[in-house]
């Protein structure tokens, strides 16, 4: 993917993390910001449109999950700015940069939405686990910790989703 993201302006900061490390971490965080925003809006899409006998519990579950993602959007964006970078978090940028596929717009019933979200939560979870390793290798333990926190929640939510799919 040709990224507009790596060409972003850096700001001076007194933080004791080398600029070349910060630049790499910021690029990764902005990719994650795009994916997190994308997943949040997809989860809301499920919240609004799910139908069928499990409607109410799934409608509520999806809203809880979207709320968590909204918090992570903010945490990821603010880690970018704490490192002297520019957070790239508009809807257009998220759509252009997200690693996730578009939502299943034909999903109607509960299990169709659960499956669509499980696929995307799994892909996002893989991205997070790779990001934990990358930021750890770069020596940015704080960003690795942020990714670890998000990753733990995403794994739990994947379990919640997949528990609905067991026959
Ligand atoms: Fe709502």
CATH architecture: Up-down Bundle
- SSE order in H/E notation? HHHHH
Output the CATH topology: Ferritin
The dominant shape is elongated
Q: Beta fraction of the residues?
A: under 5%
Average predicted confidence as pLDDT: 95
What compounds sit in this structure?
Answer: fe (ii) ion
Total strands: the figure is 0
Helix content: over 70%
Largest sheet: none
Intertermini distance: 39 Å
Total discrete domains: 1
Structural class: mainly alpha
Rg from alpha-carbon coordinates: 17 Å
For this structure, what is the CATH homologous superfamily? Ferritin, core subunit, four-helix bundle
Question: Could you list the spans in which at least 5 consecutive residues all have pLDDT below 50?
Answer: none
**CATH structural class:** Mainly Alpha
Number of helices: 5
Explain what you see.
With 167 residues, this protein is mainly alpha-helical. The protein has a single domain (16-163), classed as Ferritin, core subunit, four-helix bundle (Ferritin, Up-down Bundle), CATH 1.20.1260.10. The chain has five helices and no strands. The chain has helices spanning 19-49, 55-82, 91-97, 110-137, 141-163. The termini are far apart. The model has no long low-confidence stretch (mean pLDDT 95). Fe (ii) ion (FE2) is lined by residues 47, 63. Fe (ii) ion binds next to loops. Its EC number is 1.16.-.-. Keywords: Oxidoreductase. InterPro entries: DPS_DNA-bd, DPS_DNA-bd_CS, Ferritin-like, Ferritin-like_SF, Ferritin_DPS_dom.
């Amino acid at each position: 993917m040709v990224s507009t993201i790596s060409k972003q302006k850096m700001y001076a900061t007194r933080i004791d993390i080398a600029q070349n490390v910060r630049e790499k971490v910021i690029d990764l965080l902005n990719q994650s910001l795009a994916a997190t925003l994308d997943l949040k809006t997809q989860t809301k899409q499920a919240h609004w449109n799910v139908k069928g006998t499990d409607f109410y519990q799934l409608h509520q579950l999806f809203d809880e999950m979207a709320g968590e993602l909204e918090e992570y959007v903010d945490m990821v964006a603010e880690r970018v700015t704490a490192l002297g970078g520019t957070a790239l978090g508009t809807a257009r940028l998220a759509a252009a940069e997200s690693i996730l596929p578009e939502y299943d717009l034909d999903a109607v019933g509960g299990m169709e939405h659960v499956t669509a979200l499980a696929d995307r939560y799994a892909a996002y979870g893989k991205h997070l686990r790779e990001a934990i390793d990358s930021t750890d290798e770069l020596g940015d333990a704080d960003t690795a910790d942020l990714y670890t926190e998000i990753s733990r929640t995403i794994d739990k939510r994947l379990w919640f989703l997949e528990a609905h799919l067991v026959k």
